[in-house]
Amino acid sequence: MSKSESGEYQPLRPQPGPIGELFAPVAGFGVTLSSMFRPTVTEQYPREKAPTQRRFHGRHQLNRYADGLEKCIGCELCAWACPADAIYVEGASNAALPENAGLQVNADDSQGAHMSPGERYGGVYQINYLRCIFCGLCIEACPTRALTMTNDFELAGKTRAGMIYEKQDLLAPLSEGMLAAPHPMVEGSTDTNYYSGDVLGPTAAQVDWVREHRPDDETLDAADAVASGRAPAPEQRQHELRPDEGPGAAERSAGAAAVGSVRVLASDAAGSNRPGVTA
Question: How far apart are CA 10 and CA 112, in angstroms?
Fold first, then answer.
C-alpha cells in the first residue's frame, strides 16, 4: 500500500480488471486442473520405501575391528558433544574382565582379554532417541570412528523406555570371520596399530586363546579359516534394526554382561549394579 496525495492508501499490486474479478473465485481451480495431468510423485510409504542418500543421518552404530574387538573405548566424548544430552556412556576397564583375574593388563599390552584395544571399553552405552536430533556431532567427536550413523530411519516405538537404545541394540554384529570378544589383541600390536587400520583379521594366537577359554564359541571355525588364509578377511556389517531378542549366540557365549544384555532406563543410569561396569 502507498499513500496518495489525497491521503488515501493505494495498493501497489496491480488490481485485476473486470474479467479477472469475474474468474477470481475459481482461479484456484486452475492449479488443481493443471496438476491432474502431471505424473504422480507421491511416495507409497511404507509399501514402497525410497532409498535414502548415502550420507543420511539415521540410527547410530557402534563398529568393530576386523578381528572382532569393539572400536568404542568408553571415552565419553560423544556424550560430551551431544547438544541434546541424548547419549550416556560408562567406560569399563579391560583389566576388570573375569578372564584377566590375576593378570596385569596395560593399555599397550596385547596379552590378556580385551573387549576393545587399549585400556578401556564402553561398558554401558545408551542413546535416547526421544532426545536425539540426528545432528551428527557425536560421530565427529569420536576419536576411533567407533560411532557412525546408518541409513535406518524407522525408529518409532510403543513406549518411552523402548526408545532408549542400549549397547546390544547399537553394536554391529559379528561378520563372518570375526572372533567374538573378549580375547587378546593381535600379538605384538598396540592400540595405535588398530587405529591405523593395520589389523585385517583374527590371528591363530587369538583363535587358540578363545578355543582354550571358550571351546564352544560359534565364531571359532570361521575365524580359524581367516587366520589360516582359507577365507578372506571379514568386512563390517550393519546392525539390523532393533534386535529385541537381545545379543546373539556369539555374544552370549562371550559373556552377556560384556555387551550389556540387561536393559536399564536412563533414570537408573547412575546405578552401580550395571553389567560389565566396575564400581
Answer: 86
Ramachandran quadrant class, 255 (left: phi over 0; alpha: psi -120 to 50; beta: rest): left
Q: Is the pLDDT of residue 210 over 90?
A: yes
Proportion of the chain above pLDDT 90, given as a percent: 46
SS3 content of the chain, % helix, strand, coil (to 5): 30, 10, 60
Q: Is 14 exposed, middle or buried (0-12, 13-18, 19+ CB in 10 A)?
A: exposed
Nearest Cα to Cα of residue 146 among 226, 80, 60: 60
Of 51-60, 92-101, 105-114, 239-248, the one with minimum mean pLDDT is: 239-248
Q: Please say whether the beta carbons of 127 and 133 come within 8 A.
A: no
Residue with cell 502507498: 2
Q: Are 117 and 65 in contact (CB under 8 A)?
A: yes
pTM flag (> 0.90): no
At position 162, the amino acid (one-letter code) is: G
Compute φ and ψ for 66, nearest 5 degrees: -65, -20
Amino acid at 234: P
Distance of CA 47 to the CA centre of its chain: 26
Q: What residues contact residue 118 under an 8 Å CB cut-off, 6+ apart?
A: 73, 94, 107, 108, 191
State the first-to-last Cα distance of the chain, in angstroms, to the nearest integer. Answer: 72
- 255, burial (CB in 10 Å: exposed 0-12, middle 13-18, buried 19+): buried
Cβ(203)–Cβ(227) under 8 Å?
yes
CB neighbours (10 Å) of residue 13? 6
Rounded to whole angstroms, how far apart are CA atoms 156 and 225? 40
